[in-house]
Amino acid sequence: MTPDETTPDIAQLQISADATLRQALEQLGTTARGILLLVGSDGTLLRTITDGDLRRLLLDGADLDDTIAALPDQAPVTLAVGWTARSALALMNERSIHQLPVVDDANRPVELVLRSDIDTPILLSTPHMSDLEQDFVAEAFETNWVAPLGPNVDAFEVEMAEYLGAGAAAALSSGTAAIHLGLRLLGVESGDTVFCSDLTFVASVNPVRYQGAEPVFIDSEPESWNMSPSALAEALDDAKARGTLPKAVIVVDLYGQSADFDPIAEISETHGVPILEDAAESLGATYKGRASGTFGRVGALSFNGNKIITSSGGGMLVADDEALMERARHLATQARAPAPHYEHTEIGYNYRMSNVLAGVGRGQLRVLDERVDARRDVFARYEKGLGDIEGVAFMPEAEYGRSNRWLSVMTLDPSATPLTPSRLIASLSEDQIEARHVWKPMHMQPLYADRPLFTHDSSGAFSARAFAQGVCLPSGSNMTVGQQDRVITAIHRAFERC
Ligand SMILES: Cc1ncc(COP(=O)(O)O)c(C=O)c1O
User: Fold this and answer.
1) How far is CA 175 from CA 178, 179, 225, 242, in A?
2) Residue of 253, 304, 437 best suited for mutating to test ligand 1, as the one with most atoms within 8 Å of CB
3) Which whole number is the average pLDDT over 107-134?
4) Res. 17: pLDDT tops 90
5) Which of 124, 125, 201, 251 to mutate to test the pocket of ligand 1 (most atoms within 8 A of CB)?
6) For residue range 27-56, what is the model confidence (pLDDT) as tens digits?
């Protein structure tokens, strides 16, 4: 592991046979790793020494001023350079030990591996609670508002709209529900087409089919990895010429970065096509100083457990138009018409957010800005620790905005390194580290293989290149610096091994 300020250097753990028991006990105390490494005059490892080994010598009658040369010979259990967390843990379990020295080809210790440093998996993006959520949840229980409506739901909508600078919001059961309802509000129905970003998670586009409509995919541009304005313009011109303008354009803000909305909005407006902004991944990001999520006629947010803030599951629609959000709330509660009995004149859904989960969301919203800063710090640390490796680059941040860096995405240039995303992901998995491929583009999905794609330029789909070269690294705002260093070290090792 990469040493941090509190980790003793491997040299500080080494001791020679002429040291006294007193010195050895003191060194064990100051280094606080529960182990010392007895090395010969040539620096090779002779054995490991624990507190128990020294106490046994004392019990056998040795004096504190005797040297540790009196320790019996004992072949050390070691790891070779190139070890993985999985192999180290297997050996530790087999020998019932918690530390393992790593030795080089000449049997010189180069590193000490501690069980506590490697036995917890590092996951891609996990929930990060503050201490505020439980108060809102407790209040929901105390007042028995354990229902898909209640004060937390109302307040979460108001607070989110205020945070974003949007007119109104409707809290829903998921981001997917928000996109579906958004399409319904925009009048998308059977037989329509809807344009959608190609490089995204499938939840952006599935609701198009829920409505019986068909998607057309728009490629990304390299500056932001988001919808290419030029590909959108070409697709809209083509649709106009055929008399099949789409009912809506779903613009995704990928991995926490806003799309370039000025040109996208201008082109869409020219053709009279409304935008649905899929800001599921970009809450807390900005575009030209304005909050992500506020650039479409409607915007969809997600509070899934892996998102920058979570309600454990949930989503929200936002819009400037309060009447539109009122209609969203109506459709999300089975579209019950005003009558003393149950009266229904149109199809509705059970899409409202629970008041308990809205309480979690309210607590999380209060720490959103801190979460953005923390994720940006994770990204900056990766960039610093890995940016010099030949063939490594990172998803760029377009100059027009500030990404929330929901996921830190690294790319591997196949012309500069033989390490592929698949091999790196497998290698990190051996080190108990979860990494993922970049979203497989929609036009490459068997589900949508028959649907058209408009590419950014004639060099082929940029989205396919991002998929072929990209790796999403663990990015949680709750990652410790030690865990980030563990990822960086593991990636360096993966490069050394390939
Ligand atoms: C881009 C994008 N759109 C939509 C969704 C759907 O959100 P949810 O999981 O809350 O339904 C997600 C995430 O899951 C997403 O990443």
Assistant:
1) 5, 6, 21, 32
2) 304
3) 96
4) yes
5) 201
6) 999 999 999 999 999 999 999 999 999 999
pTM > 0.90: yes or no:
yes
H/E element, 112: strand 109-114
With a 6 A CB cut-off, is 278 part of the ligand 1 pocket? Answer: yes
Q: What percent of the chain is predicted at pLDDT more than 90?
A: 97
Where helices occur in 271-334 by DSSP H, the ranges are 322-332
Of all protein residues, whose CA lies closest to atom 12 belonging to ligand 1? Answer: 280
**Domain 133-365 CATH (choose: 3.30.499.10, 3.40.630.30, 3.40.640.10, 3.10.105.10):** 3.40.640.10
The SS3 call for residue 352 is: strand
The percent of residues in the chain predicted with pLDDT above 70, rounded, is: 99
Mean pLDDT of 415-422: 98
Query: Residue 445: pLDDT above 70?
Result: yes
**Among 176, 252, 298, 353, residue to substitute to test ligand 1 (most atoms within 8 Å of Cβ):** 176
Distance, in Å, from the CA atom of 322 to the CA atom of 313, rounded to the nearest integer, reads 24
10-118: which CATH number, 3.10.580.10, 3.40.50.2000, 3.30.499.10, 3.40.50.300? Answer: 3.10.580.10
Is the pLDDT at 7 greater than 90? The verdict is no
What is the CB neighbour count within 10 angstroms for residue 290? Answer: 14
Mean pLDDT of the chain: 96
**pLDDT score of 3:** 42
Q: Is the CB of 174 under 6 A from ligand 1?
A: yes
Which residue has 């859904």 as its token pair?
A: 349
Q: Concatenated DSSP letters for 126-147? A: -----SSHHHHHHHHHHTT--S
**Measured from the CA of 179, which atom of ligand 1 is nearest?**
4
- What is the atom index within ligand 1 of the atom nearest the CA of 303? 10
Q: Superfamily assignment of 369-497 in CATH?
A: Aspartate Aminotransferase, domain 1 (3.90.1150.10)
